[in-house]
C-alpha cells in the first residue's frame, strides 16, 4: 500500500549533512558525487501538486514525509532518474478510463512544468545519450515513466501521446489486474489472463514500436514470462526485489532473474520495506492509517490548511503507534547483494520507490544514497561495477529500446 502521506499518490549547500558525513568516508562521498546516478522509480511527481510544496526547497522526511527535493538530491548525489506518472487503479469502465487519462496527462504536465520553471537545475531527457551531458552541466536529469498503464484505457495508440510528453519507460499493471495484464498483488489472488491480455500484447508491440522500455514491476511472474517471450528489446524491473530473500509476490525468483538477465534485462532494487522482509503486525497503526487514507481520498484536492491538518494527524499516529519493526538498510542490501550474486553487476540497478512508500531505517531519503555506494565498495565491487549499477545498466536498456524502435 502506498502510504507516503501527502505526496498525493501515496504516503509520505552541496556539503553532506552531519549524519551522512558520519555514515560514509569522505573519499567515498566524493566518489559517489562524481558518478552518474539515476533512480529508475521516483514517485516524487505526486509531491509537485501538493499545496505549498516546492521541489526547490529542502524538506524534512520526518516533518512532511517527502523524500526527494532539489537540495536533498544535491546532498545525496542523485543526478536524476525516471519521474513516474503514477495512477491509482480504478474501475475498468469508460468513465474510469477517462478520469485516469485526464489525471495522468495532468501529472505528466506537472513534471514538464517543474522542468520549465527551473531550466537552470532541471532538464528533460528523451534519449539515453542525454543523461551524461545534463549531469555535466550540474542539472538534474528528468526522464518520465508510467506506473500503471490503466490511463490508456483500451486505446493503445494513446501511448504515442505520452511518448510525445516524454515517457520512455512504461509498466503494465499496479496493485490490481487491469485491462492489460495481471498484477502480482491482485486482491483476488487469482490470475485474470495468466499473463498479458490480448490488449496487453498490443501495448507491448506499441512500446517496442515507439522505443519505450517495458517495465514488469508490479505485474505477475506470468506477465514477465510473456514480456521475455514477446518483447523485441530488453525488459526492466524498475523497482523490485528478490524472492530468495523474502518470498513476497512483488519480488522475483532466481530463475526469472536469470531469464531476465539472459535477454539483457535489469532488475532495479526496491527499498519498500514491506517487500524486503516480514514484519510484526501493528493493527492499531494499520487501522489509524487506513482511516487517514480514507480522509485523503475524500479530499482529493487538498487546501494548505487541510494538508496541514492531515500532516498533524499522521504525526500523531506516529507518536501513538510507532513502527517498531521497520526494515533496515541491511535488509535492502541483502536483496541487492543477492541479485548481484545471481546475475552480476551488468543486470542490477537502483529504483528505491522514493515518495511512494520506499525508504528504510538508515536509508530514509535521498541524502542517504552515498551509503549504497559505500556498501557496494565494502562488498568488493569496483568503481566500474558501481557505475553500471547506478546508471549504466538502465541507460543500456533504454538505448536498446531506442535502437529497436520502428524508424
Task: Describe the structure in your own words.
The protein is an alpha/beta fold. The chain contains 15 helices and 9 strands. The protein has helices at residues 18-23, 26-34, 45-48, 70-76, 94-117, 131-136, 159-165, 198-210, 221-230, 254-262, 283-298, 304-320, 329-343, 370-378, 383-404; strands at residues 38-42, 80-86, 122-124, 140-147, 167-170, 213-214, 236-240, 266-269, 348-350. The strands form 2 sheets. Strands 1, 2, 3, 4, 5 and 6 form a 6-stranded parallel sheet that branches. A 3-stranded parallel sheet has the order 7-8-9, sandwiched between helices. Helix 11 packs antiparallel against helix 12 (304-320). The termini are far apart.
> Count the helices. How many?
15
Instruction: Report the mean per-residue pLDDT as an integer.
Output: 93
The structural class is: alpha/beta
What low-confidence regions span 5 or more consecutive residues with pLDDT below 50?
1-22
Q: Please outline the major beta sheet.
A: 6 strands, parallel
Range of helix content: 40-55%
Number of beta strands: 9
Give the termini separation. Answer: 40 Å
Proportion of beta-strand residues? 5-15%
Radius of gyration using CA atoms only: 20 Å
Order of secondary-structure elements: HHEHHEHEHEHEHEHEHEHHHEHH
Gross morphology is: globular
